[in-house]
Each structure stands twice: as C-alpha cells, then as structure tokens.
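Input structure tokens:
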C-alpha cells in the first residue's frame, strides 16, 4: 500500500512540498541538481516521445532547470517535482502538473529505472496530493508509440477518453496522442475536451 507523507518544510507556500512514498522522495529541484537535470534532459530515450529536443550541454540544462523549476517555485502553488530514491535523494526523473485548465500530468524517468513501478508510485502520490489540494481533475497524454506511459496512467487510476492528432513543436512532427483523465472533485462523467475540439483528426480507440 502506498504511503504518502507531506513534509512540513515547504508547507507555508504550498508550492511543491516534499512528498515521501515507500521508496521515493518527491521534492523540489535545487541548483545543486544541475548534473542530474542534464542527465535526465539530455537522455535520448527519456526524451524520445516528448516535444522538446534533448539538452545538448550543461548550459541548456541550466536554462531548463531555471525556467522549468526554480522560477516556478516562486509561485504560490505548484507541482514540479524531482523523483528521487530514498537511498540517496538524487533526481532520477521528474513529475509535474501543469497549472492551467488542462491540469496536465507529465513525467520522465532515466531508463535504468524503468519497469520497476517507480513512476506509478510517484504518480499515485501526486494524485493524492492534488486531491487534497482540491484540484478538480488531471489529464495526461502519451504518444501512441509509447504505450508504457499509458500503462502508468491506467495503473494510477486514470481512464482513457479519446485520441487526437497534433503537430508537435519544436520537433515539428505529426503525433497521435491518447488522452487519459482522472476526476478528483469534478463529476465522474466530466471529460476535458479541449484537445478533442481543437483537433482535425480525432478518434476513440478500443484500448
């Protein structure tokens, strides 16, 4: 059974407070994590099914750390986590919720840690925190070529809703995405339809 503990250190501003699970520490990225950020965001396998190109050098990784994490921690609330094993508290991946109407859940993990249930454990923890905080629902999408991400979504309690095609930037490639959702305080039959409404090509697959 998943153990979720909310630490007291960051509770004053509610932005990415530390969470602990049975095996993991989910915490803010820090400036001292730059080498780990480079390892994660430069890895071609981690970033294969993501829109951005892998970081080429430590300078690009520093910009990612600043823009994607450190600056966001200045906001009142947020969910922009480093995934760390308890044994060493070193980032091996990331987990985040977009603070806009999609409440999009995203994650990435270094390949050496795949197929160990780590992301599922982390996702369940952040879903629990989002529910406590009153987030109404979460969505998550994955490239149809990356069904492993869909498996994490299903194991975490999310349900498939629809698929749609999008021209993804900056890679500028056409991708079919599957959209999953979990409703936390919204009515059970509510579906976030913005991706569906904006897509010219869309479908409901048999999953």
């Amino acid at each position: 059974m998943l153990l979720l503990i909310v630490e007291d250190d960051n509770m004053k501003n509610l932005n990415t407070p530390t969470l602990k699970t049975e095996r993991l520490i989910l915490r803010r990225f820090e400036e001292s994590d730059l080498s780990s950020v480079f390892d994660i965001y430069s890895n071609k396998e981690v970033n294969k099914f993501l829109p951005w190109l892998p970081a080429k050098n430590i300078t690009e990784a520093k910009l990612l750390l600043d823009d994607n994490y450190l600056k966001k921690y200045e906001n009142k609330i947020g969910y922009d986590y480093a995934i760390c094993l308890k044994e060493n508290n070193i980032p091996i991946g990331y987990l985040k919720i977009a603070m806009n109407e999609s409440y999009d859940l995203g994650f990435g993990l270094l390949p050496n840690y795949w197929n160990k249930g780590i992301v599922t454990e982390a996702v369940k923890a952040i879903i629990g925190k989002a529910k406590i905080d009153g987030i109404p629902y979460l969505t998550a999408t994955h490239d149809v070529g990356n069904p492993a991400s869909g498996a994490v979504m299903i194991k975490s309690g999310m349900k498939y809703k629809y698929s749609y095609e999008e021209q993804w930037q900056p890679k500028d490639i056409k991708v079919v995405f599957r959209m999953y959702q979990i409703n936390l305080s919204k009515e059970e039959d509510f579906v976030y339809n913005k991706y569906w409404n904006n897509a010219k090509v869309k479908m409901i697959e048999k999953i």
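The two ends are 27 Å apart (CA to CA). The CA atoms of residues 114 and 134 lie 30 Å apart.
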